[in-house]
Amino acid sequence: MKSRITVGLLLSALLLPAAVLAEITHCTPKYTEGDTIIALGCKVLIAEEIQKSAIEDISTNYGGMHPVINAKGSVTLVAVYDYACADCKKMAPKLLTLAKNHPDIRVIFRNTQGELPNAQLASQAEIKVWILQGEKAFMHYFSQLFKGQSVKEAMFGVGTAFAGTKDELLGWDVTSDKIARQTKYFLEVLNIKTTLAFIVTATKNPDVNNTAMLTGVVDEKTVLAAVQKAK
Fold first, then answer.
1. For residue range 62-75, what is the model confidence (pLDDT) as tens digits?
2. Contact indicator for 112, 81 with CB cutoff of 8 Å
3. Per the confidence metrics, is the pTM higher than 0.90?
4. What pLDDT is recorded for position 21?
5. Which helix (H) or strand (E) covers residue 197, if one does?
6. For the chain, what is the total number of helices (H) and then of strands (E)?
7. Phi/psi of residue 196, each to 5°?
8. Domains in the chain: ranges and CATH
């Protein structure tokens, strides 16, 4: 009589988070050989499915909440950053120039907030600027923060009065926190352990095979090679 252990483990696994699922579903039955259940390759298959889902999710602009440049671009570049990141500061002007020169690259900005209070405040204010004032104001705010301006100065630069207190960002802080937690989860699934990170994939039908993940300071040639791969 064939064992039912593998089936039981499979049913239990379906109730667990995706990151855990990748580690235990290697026992899923694929085919039988006599009384032996063979389960070759299941772990790899499941891991790829989880990664594909994470790539799709991280490159989706839920309800327009993430800042986006070139919304109709055929290739998506997800920039993962925070305002206290040294590599992010180096790459910020290059990223904006890349977006300006290549309208076919849809750039989604995902802020992980970072650990410093000022970086977290900047992330919360960023969402307010994006939602209420749009792309042009966001780009100005983003560039000025990385040039060393305070949140108050950068907000003033886009025509928004800001005294510099957290109370002024009530509500926006909730959205910022949600985006940060969500982004960190996707990074964990994709095994990206640092910011700055770029995830480059096709806007339509993103997949593991057409996706490149870059971290740290990279040159334009490397980014454009990843863009070409995604097309």
1. 778 999 999 999 99
2. yes
3. no
4. 39
5. strand 197-202
6. 9, 7
7. -80, 145
8. 5-40 (no CATH), 58-230 (3.40.30.10)
